[in-house]
Amino acid sequence: MTIKTTFISSDNMNNDPLLKDKSRAHLDKIQAALGEPIIFATPEEQQGQGCVFIFVASGGSEMAFIDVMKKLPGYVCLISTDNNSSLAASMEMLAWLRENGRSGEILHGTLEQVVSRLKDIAAASEACQRFIDGRLGVIGRADERIASFIDEEGFEAMTGAPIDWISMEELLTEYEQGGYPDDQWTRELMNSGYDEEELEKALTIYGALGRVVSRHQLGAVSVRCFDLLQPTKSTGCLALAILNALGIPATCEGDLKSLVTMMAAYAVTGEPSFMANPSRFDPDKREIVFAHCTVPMNLPSSYHLTTHYESGIGIGVAGEMPLGPCTVVKTNGIFTENYVGSGTAIANLHESNLCRTQIVVRMDDDMEYFLKHPIANHHMICFGDYKNAFELFFAMMRARSEKTE
User: Fold this and answer.
1) pLDDT at 145 exceeding the cut of 90
2) Nearest in space to 292 (alpha carbons), one of 311, 317, 320
3) Running DSSP on this structure, what letter comes out for residue 224?
4) Which residues does 9 contact at the CB level (< 8 Å), separation at least 6?
5) Cβ burial, residue 13 (10 Å; 0-12/13-18/19+)
6) What distance in Å separates the CA atoms of residue 283 and residue 310, rounded to the nearest whole number?
7) CA dist., res. 182 & res. 400, Å (int)
8) Which residues contact 396 (CB under 8 A, 6 or more apart)?
């Protein structure tokens, strides 16, 4: 990733005609240690970055800073030096940001400290760009998901793209046409020994869903999957499992908050996540049982096929999930309310009265969020410790909604 930063200084360049050259030399040291290019750029050239980078070359640059802030929304990273009152000016700027309802931080310290933090900031900035580049679509409207809709106007203002609402009839028409790709997953599944008739129906839903996604050029999709039960006598669990394995975030039940969260999880980690219901809590042990009938095909160490839990038909996926560090996340869709919690996946379960893939997660924190103010039902489980990465990503996405003046 090329980091673009805008150079600002006092009008008289601090009486140093070599100030910009010295600033470039300072950036060159950071660039060499970072291993990524850093260039000076105009505010206009920074448009689209997840984070606004400002190189504060000297004191007396505060008004130039405000001029830049009028042009650029978003989280602000102030790169300061040890000279020319750069740090003092940066502190004034950060205070101004806070007083004006905006977010940011000062990047300052030893070369090692600066590079370490800059890696985190650059990764979060790049994740924001990946998230914004993804077009979101929903097939069918799940009004029964009473706490799972999002502020659509706020989402469009933040990302620049509206939500694409697609009728269930379009998906069912594609299903009637039949057919599905001959790929790694369909071949593996057809050779699994599971009931061939059931597999044909489930994979035909996958083929239909894939064609709808392609036609609408979607980067992520959610399906009101219970509407598939009667007309197809099958379920969307397998279709969603394959799409997620192919790098297309796909959620069930038409849950918009979960779809945005899953898109964010993919943007941050580069890996699919497990969308699941919190099914049982043990507050004293800080343990949660998460369960769902679909899971990305490439997440479990092994899996077997069975029926969908609630309906008893179709195909659900029961996976053996990796044990170890994990991160549980959820957003309200416009990133003004977010949850990120670290924990450890400690066991897989195989209980008959829950959705088919079941894991026990021991959280590092208590259960207060889940029992007192959850962001609806479904949550995403990412395998690995990404808490800090998510917190920075959420801060940057939330900052996209902050006013520039």
Assistant:
1) no
2) 317
3) -
4) 19, 20, 23, 57, 58, 60, 61, 64, 84
5) middle
6) 26
7) 41
8) 50, 51, 74, 75, 124, 125, 128
Task: State the residue for tokens 């479904």.
Answer: 378
Helix or strand run (H / E) with residue 39: strand 38-40
CB 225 within 8 A of CB 252: yes
- Alpha-carbon radius of gyration of the chain: 24
DSSP of 280-317, one letter per residue? EEETTTTEEEEEES---TTSSSEEEEE--TTTS-S-EE
CA distance 287 to 346: 9
Question: 46-50, 264-268, 312-316 — which is least confidently predicted?
Answer: 46-50
Query: Helix crossing, 168-177 with 196-215: angle to 10°?
Result: 120
Cβ(145)–Cβ(277) below 8 Å: no
pLDDT value at position 49?
A: 85
- Quick one: how far is CA 213 from the chain centroid? 19
* Structural contact between residues 168 and 224, judged by C-beta atoms closer than 8 angstroms: yes
Q: H helices of 178-301, where?
A: 184-190, 196-215, 229-232, 237-245, 256-269
Region 307-312 average pLDDT: 92
Whether the pLDDT of residue 405 is over 60: the answer is no
41 closest CA partner among 7, 81, 75: 7
CA 336 to chain centre: 14
CA–CA distance, 240 with 139 (Å, rounded to integer) = 13
CA 6 – CA 46 distance, rounded (Å): 8
Could you give the 3-state DSSP secondary structure of residue 273? coil
pLDDT at 403 over 70: no
Q: How far apart are CA 332 and CA 398, in angstroms?
A: 11
Q: What is the DSSP letter of 46?
A: G
Instruction: Confirm whether pTM is higher than 0.85.
Output: yes
The per-residue DSSP string of 95-115 comes to HHHHHTT--EEEE-SSHHHHH
pLDDT digits (tens, 9 = 90+) for 343-382: 999 999 999 999 999 999 999 999 999 999 999 999 999 9
Q: Which tokens in the block code for residue 228?
A: 């598939």
Are the C-beta atoms of residues 255 and 378 closer than 8 Å to each other? yes
Tens digits of residue pLDDT in 260-273: 999 999 999 999 99
Condensed to tens digits (0 to 9), the pLDDT of residues 80-126 reads: 999 999 999 999 999 999 999 999 999 999 999 999 999 999 999 99
